[in-house]
Design goal:
251 residues; alpha/beta; Rossmann fold; five-stranded parallel sheet
């Protein structure tokens, strides 16, 4: 369907804003969550992302896109950033940025990979690594809205030490079921040995296709493509499988 642009709103989203870091929380050895105060923030939907721009004293500028982790909450938002080895932007955000520092961002961006509180159908969330971030935004938005839509999360990580938001997920929320999948090292009490995601994992941890759930899959390109193909193989309608992927972009 062709969409008609709304000049004022579109221009507002594309405008660069100065954000101040007001909080920093370590999520793992390679990831942190940055809380930002963004004056004039227009608000966001669960699943959207922002563009972050850094400019050096000599005028050199570079930018990267990061998913929003927090539920809509006025002018504040959380970005969870994972350090990319050899990266240009993520090491600075993860290792050097502290409360009081400022950066530029614009957004929100994205209109397809989103969850709205009006949705009442079952939801399957499948995350690979830091692909959990926009899905966590959906989980938090659901809880903030008091939605009763049933959510099932399959979270694939390399090892237990790589998990993000571990305390929050372990605590759980009504109507949210979480399944952990480890590819390299699993805890001793894990009912599943380490290995890549499989159709059997999706069948056990997700909703049956005849429930007509909406499925959101986010992670590295290979993970997303394989998972989406498995979901269709299990009978899920392709138009109900929404994907977002990330690859090597210089970090």
């Amino acid at each position: 369907m062709e969409r008609t642009a709304v000049p004022g709103r579109l221009g507002d989203r594309l405008r660069w804003r100065t954000a101040e870091v007001t909080g920093r929380r370590v999520e793992s050895a390679t990831a942190v969550t940055l809380t930002l105060d963004v004056p004039g923030w227009p608000g966001h939907l669960a699943g959207q992302h922002v563009d972050v721009r850094l400019t050096a004293e000599d005028g050199y500028s570079t930018q990267r896109s990061y998913s929003i982790a927090s539920a809509p909450d006025g002018r504040n938002l959380d970005l969870t950033v994972q350090r990319t080895p050899g990266g240009e932007v993520s090491p600075y955000l993860v290792d050097e940025l502290v409360p009081g520092d400022r950066l530029e961002l614009r957004g929100p961006v994205g209109g397809w990979f989103i969850w709205r509180q009006q949705q009442t159908e079952p939801i399957v969330l499948v995350a690979g690594g830091s692909g959990l971030v926009p899905l966590m935004c959906m989980i938090r938005a659901r809880e903030a809205a008091g939605s009763r839509a049933p959510f099932r999360l399959l979270y694939a990580a390399r090892t237990p030490s790589d998990l993000l938001y571990r305390s929050e997920l372990r605590q759980g929320a009504p109507g949210l079921d979480t399944t952990y999948l480890y590819s390299r090292e699993a805890p001793e009490d894990s009912p599943r040995p380490p290995g890549r995601i499989s159709p059997e994992d999706l069948a056990r941890g997700g909703w049956p296709s005849d429930f007509e759930p909406t499925c959101y899959v986010c992670g590295p390109t290979g993970f997303v493509e394989k998972t989406a193909a498995y979901l269709v193989l299990l009978g899920h309608a392709p138009e109900r499988v929404r994907t977002e992927r990330f690859g090597h972009s210089g970090g």
